[in-house]
């Protein structure tokens, strides 16, 4: 088959040379990685008939290659190296013999020949000079510069294409350009300069030139130069005065990258109250005061460093502001004074109320104490009277009692005045209520008021009957022997009491210790006749001290407390 194809090609060339025909190649341009169509069309004349169509190519170095063949009897055949890459465009290659290269490569740049064999007219051929281009691929690599660095590369531009592209820079910067190319058909260009902050943001574009492009391809670029911030405090004008509302300062800062960290201070002082800081802004949320003056500092910071700016704020005091400030101060003084006065009045009222409360409480406690004291005194008197009414009715003890009473009366003669024809027992009716001696007995003071004595005698009329019944009951139930030894055993003088006259029980006359109103003259004589015995008893069992007659200490003695309690 291959021999047949070569034979047909040889025959075609021979006929063309014999006939004297010359074939001029047609130029055609295509791009790599795209589909390429190589046209070839032959019109049969008379009764000629196409027998075979063959495509071949010749490289620039003279190497020839068969691509594809379509024979009338043997059909289509693809030669090695082109299988799957080429095909006839038409289903009937004898009518339209155009060849399609499905994916064009840079190596497909060659001269292609279309051979058509006819019978009996002979062979014909058509040559096409195919040029393969590649659209350039370019890239730009910018460099971030910092202020203060030495002369260095600011950007690099690279491109690859077929034919080889050209690179250039579109900028007004002062710098140098260096171009390089490599064996892989890659071209590069670098731009070098000395970085300054004034160059930041300037245009530095790369242009790619290629014959396939009507206009150069532009790669836009902006020069980046980092430098520290340069803050400046703005916002202050000459109209600031005391009382102004809505005043504020702003920290304007350059620098690259843009500062995001701002710090506000007041030189030598802290920021005044009522000031709010938001980023690069400082504003007063209240009217201005004279104390807001000072040197305000703003510090801006970025990756290149921190820079501080200062500004002196002067706040003059206008007449209107002074008047408003004075009014405000006066109002503040009035408010403070009123509040203080109110507190003082409130404290005085509280003190008065507390004092009145304590006074009422003290009066109440004093009244209760007096009532308790009177109640205790009444109970003491009642207890004393009960003890006086409960003593023995032994006549010998009554005689000794009379002697004791007389002796006590003689000792207190400076305080007593006896009335005529009144007995010692009658003087007991005039005792002053509530008066007691050191032994707890009622004091023997006569009554100098006839009205009081008569009323006292009237009061004791009822008591006599009660005492009489008590004495009768005591004598009936008493088991104490009425002998002289009992007097010596009971060495404490019996208490005095006021009772009724003589009483009889079982034919015997009984007399109480306090029955002095019923004492007869004979009984008074008995008291006088026994004075020796009384004085002896007094010397044995009693002692005189400080104007009072007191019993001598004895283990069996029964003493009465001044308040009527038994000791």
UniProtKB/TrEMBL annotation:
Residues 20-131, 136-220, 231-314 form the Ig-like domain. It is a single-pass membrane protein. It is found in: Membrane. The chain crosses the membrane at residues 331-354. Gene3D superfamilies: Immunoglobulins (2.60.40.10), transmembrane domain of human cd4 (1.20.5.900). Residues 435-528 are annotated as: Disordered. Belongs to the nectin family. This is Ig-like domain-containing protein. The lineage of its organism: Eukaryota, Metazoa, Chordata, Craniata, Vertebrata.
């Amino acid at each position: 088959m291959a021999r047949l194809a070569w034979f047909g090609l040889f025959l075609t060339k021979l006929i063309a040379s014999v006939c004297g025909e010359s074939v001029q190649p047609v130029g055609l341009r295509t791009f790599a990685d795209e589909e390429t169509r190589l046209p070839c069309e032959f019109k049969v004349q008379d009764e000629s008939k196409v027998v075979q169509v063959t495509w071949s190519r010749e490289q620039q170095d003279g190497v020839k290659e068969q691509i594809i063949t379509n024979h009338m009897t043997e059909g289509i055949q693809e030669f090695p190296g082109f299988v799957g890459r080429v095909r006839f465009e038409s289903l009937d290659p004898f009518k339209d013999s155009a060849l399609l290269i499905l994916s064009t490569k840079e190596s497909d740049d060659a001269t292609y020949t279309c051979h058509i064999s006819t019978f009996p007219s002979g062979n014909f051929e058509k040559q096409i000079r195919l040029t393969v281009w590649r659209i350039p691929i370019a890239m730009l690599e910018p460099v971030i510069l910092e202020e203060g660095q030495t002369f260095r590369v600011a950007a690099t531009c690279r491109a690859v294409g077929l034919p080889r592209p050209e690179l250039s820079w579109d900028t007004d910067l002062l710098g140098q350009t260096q171009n390089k190319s490599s064996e892989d058909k890659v071209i590069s260009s670098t731009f070098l300069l000395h970085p300054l902050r004034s160059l930041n943001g300037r245009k530095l574009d790369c242009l790619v030139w290629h014959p396939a492009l009507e206009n150069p391809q532009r790669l836009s670029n902006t020069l980046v130069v980092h430098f520290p911030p340069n803050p400046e405090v703005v916002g202050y004008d000459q109209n600031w005065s005391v009382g102004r509302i809505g005043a504020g300062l702003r920290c304007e800062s350059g620098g690259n990258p843009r500062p995001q960290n701002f710090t506000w201070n007041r030189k030598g002082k802290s920021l005044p109250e009522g000031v709010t800081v938001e980023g690069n802004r400082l504003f007063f949320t209240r009217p201005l005061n004279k104390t807001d003056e000072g040197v305000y500092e703003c510090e801006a910071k970025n990756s290149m460093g921190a820079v501080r700016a200062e500004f002196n704020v002067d706040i003059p005091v206008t007449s209107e502001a002074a008047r408003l400030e004075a009014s405000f101060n006066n109002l503040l003084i009035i408010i403070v004074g009123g509040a203080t006065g109110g507190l003082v009045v409130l404290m005085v009222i509280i003190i008065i109320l507390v004092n009145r409360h304590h006074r009422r409480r003290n009066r109440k406690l004093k009244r209760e104490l007096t009532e308790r004291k009177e109640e205790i005194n009444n109970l003491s008197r009642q207890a004393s009277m009960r003890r006086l009414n409960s003593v023995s009715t032994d006549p010998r003890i009554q005689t000794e009692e009379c002697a004791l009473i007389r002796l006590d009366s003689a000792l207190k003669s400076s305080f007593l005045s006896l009335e005529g024809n009144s007995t010692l027992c009658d003087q007991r009716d005039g005792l002053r209520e509530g008066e007691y001696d050191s032994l707890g007995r009622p004091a023997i003071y006569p009554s100098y008021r006839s009205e009081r004595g008569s009323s006292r005698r009237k009061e004791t009329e009822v008591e006599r009957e009660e005492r009489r019944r008590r004495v009768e009951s005591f004598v009936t139930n008493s088991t104490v022997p009425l002998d002289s030894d009992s007097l010596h055993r009971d060495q404490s003088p019996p208490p005095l009491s006021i009772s009724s006259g003589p009483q009889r029980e079982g034919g015997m006359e009984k007399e109480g210790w306090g029955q002095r109103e019923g004492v007869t003259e004979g009984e008074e004589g008995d008291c006088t006749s026994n004075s020796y015995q009384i004085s002896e008893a007094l010397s044995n069992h009693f002692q005189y001290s400080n104007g009072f007659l007191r019993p001598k200490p004895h283990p069996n003695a029964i003493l009465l407390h001044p308040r009527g309690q038994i000791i």
